[in-house]
Structure formats: C-alpha cells, structure tokens
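Hi there,

I know you've been waiting on this one. I reran it after we fixed the sequence typo, so this is the corrected version. Both the input and the resulting structure follow.
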Amino acid sequence: MERRTWWRDAALVFAAALALRLLFNWGFVTNKAHPDIASMYQYSLRVAQGIYYGAGAYWPPGFIFLSGGLIRLFGPEGYWTAVRYLQALLGAATCALGCAIGRAAFGSRSAGLLGGLGLAVYLPLIYYTGLAFSETLFLFFLMAAVYYLYRLARTQAVRDAAAAGFLLGLATLTRPVSLLVPVLVLPWYWLLWGRRLRPVLGRVLLMGAVLLLTLLPWVVRNYIVTGDLVLVDVNGGINFYIGHNERANGTWVDMGQKTDAVIILGGSPEGGRLGYRRGLEFIRTHPRRELELAWTKFKWFWTKPSDWYITRYARERGLPHLEPPVWGALAVAGAILTRRRWRGTLFLVLFILYYNAIIVAIYYASRYRLVVEPFWVLLTAGGAAEVLLRLRRVLES
C-alpha cells in the first residue's frame, strides 16, 4: 500500500510539474545571446560535428554532450526548442524525485507531497528549463543521486552505494560542485548506523570509487588533450581568481578578456593553476578584505533575490513569486521545527552548508545558488507538514 501511494504521489507531482513547464515553454523565447549560453553552444556544435568537444577543458562536458546530441538530431535551429522541452521533462522528473526525498527525509507522506508540489511551482526551476544552461540537467542528476543516498541510508545495500556514486559522477561531469558529496554523508551515515565506522567507510569508499570511474573516460581525454590531470574542467581556478583579487566585490567581475593573464589562458590547465595561485596570494596578503568578501558572499547567499529576469517575468504576468531569501528563512524555520527528525534532515542541512561554503570560496551568482534552492523548498515543506501535524493533534485532543 505504501509503495502504491509513493508512485501515485510521484506521478501527481510529475504531471503537475510537467504541465507547468510545458505551458511556460510554449510561448517562451529563449536567450541565445548570454555569453555562457553562446559559449556552450559553440562547444556543442563541435560535438555535433564529431569533433568531440575540441581543445581545452573549459566547460564540464555533461551538458555540452547532451546539447551536441540534440543538435545532431534536430539541427542547429531545432536545438533551441528541443533542449527546452527535454529540460521540461527533466525538471518534472526532478520534482518527482524531490517528492520521494522529502518523504524519506521527514518520514511523512505529506512532507514529500508538499515538497514535490513546492518544487513543481517554484518559478526559478520552471524558468531555467527555458534556458540552455546546465542547471536543470545537473539538478536532475543530483536529486537522483540524493534519492539513492536516502535509499542507502535505509538499506545499507552495496547496489544503492554504487547507484549513488554513478549518479554523482554524472552530476559532477555536469557541474563539479557535487564531487565532494560522498564526504558529506560520512558523519550522517556514521550517526545513522550506530556509529559503526566499518560499514560507513565501505559504502562511502565504494560510492567514491564508482564516482571516479564515471569520471575516468573524461579524465583520460583531458590528459591526452592537455597533458595534465584534469578531473572535469579548469573553470575552478578562473572562478576562484574572480572571487579573490583586488577588484573582487563578491560577485562576477569582468577582469578583461584581452588583458588579464588568467582570463587569456582560460580553458587551459595553466590558466586554472595561475588563477588558484593568484587567488591564494590575494587571500594571504589581504586577510581583512577577504573577511569582508566572505561575509558579503555569505550574506548574499541568504538575502539576494532571484535573477532580475525571473523577478520581472513574475511581475509582468502577475504571478505569485516568493523570492529565494523567503524560502531560505522558511527552510531554517523548517529545520528547527523538524529537529527531532534530524536523522532524515541532517543531509539536507549539511548540503546547504556545504554549498554555502562553495559560494563563499568563489563568488555569488543567483544562477549558482539555484542548486541549493530545492533543498530550501524541501525543508520548508517538512516544516509545514510538521505544523499541520501539530495542529491536527491539537484539534483531536
């Protein structure tokens, strides 16, 4: 019976989410001119032409290869429609996974259903299905991996550890921020499994090994092409440098495409290494400024609204849109209200803190924060379900 309700709830969430995303994309005109979108499209064209990405390792390959396949199937013009509708499907599946995760995290059907429906109507997630960014694909892989992390928490099964590792590998090939997720589950599983270190290490090491094996073909390709050991891309050094230099202000700064040595070398291992060196040197020589920047990025993570084009879209169409900072505050309240269910919610909290640290380590952008916003929605849903449960108990007493 429980399994039947699980599938019914997931199907309901998927259908609602898909309908909203299809409706949104029906008349949506995508942005082809954004520098990141235009750059990834050029790499995707190379894949479609059989060039296998080309030189360097600037972008993670996951979204590039998906886009290259779509260009090959639908042509350069048809791609812009195909990618939006494929992302509508992936986004809807992500919401269904969120329903399952919420149910597992809070041990509550209502929390799962509220969480899934919350993700279904969450405007930034809907909006990004219309843009050829990697966020929608990444969130699908990440949420699928988190689903298996929760299964593993319950079953301790080797197959669930392997599945989580494989999906985390695919997520990492799309955006490398998921690379260290296996480290996050160490304390969680240790506490869940009666503080028995051996099974925890065994499952987490297997997960990490499968993750790295998933990356291996791309690592070999990078070594052949660049002559360096590059796990996914060299973007990290550039982003680190942008977040830590004399002109840094907490968000993206144009360092000069033709004048800055790090930017000129972008896409090469040398550029990544130089970015890390210069960023670390700035941290060492400007500790007070670094503390100011860290506080600014931490504060913006919790207080900045959505990207301006999402806010404008909601305002022009009269759509209800709670800005992300509201969801962040509600998530904190939800975590407090459900503190007795910490065995299920601990991973959600750990991931939020982990991703907050990543933003502080590089720089803030509303698009980057989108990755953590589904976790805010799930914690909010858990808190709402807890409030409803307490109200029902009061009314019944």
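Quick highlight: The mean pLDDT is 96.

Best,
R. S.
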